[in-house]
Write a structure and sequence with these properties.
single chain, alpha+beta
Amino acid sequence: MQRQDRISNIIKTRNITQLVHFTKKQNINSIIKNGLLSIEELKKRNLEYIYNDPERRDDWNYAISLSITNKNLFLFESFKRRQKLIDSDFVEIKIDPSVIIDNECIFCDTNAASHTFDIYRQNEEELAILKTWIAFDAMFKKTVKRHTLNETGKIKRFNQKPNETTCSQAEICLIGNIQPEKFINLEELKQL
């Protein structure tokens, strides 16, 4: 079975109906017009945008950060707090999960900026491991290890639905662009 078939099977088996990306409301008109683009692509096209995260600690500026089923609430609250913003300053883009079948992705079982992934940032051969269907499936494993600067923690799967990742901060870093026709809530977004 090929990578695409395996990923498709996981999506179906786990009943994953949406991926989520949140962004500042001011970006939505450009996103509807141009699609969801990586920071690298935005700069290449010389398009104006407002950062969610000026620090982007994962260093994968060529990728778009996506969550499975629910937005990363921890990160969302962190961005709001750091930038003194409120919920209505942001908008959620709900995306058809088929985009991860058709695009190269980095599957992170916890926050992509975690020290867990430092070795992958420094080595293309290691990074290839995170691009496999096995890494996608691992986002739902019973225990996820998360490394911070001073410690290693374990996150255990407890009461998550089958379509929710073990770690609420898990993310997919999609390499490529996402066209507006893949936005499940496109009509709603056009009304903003």
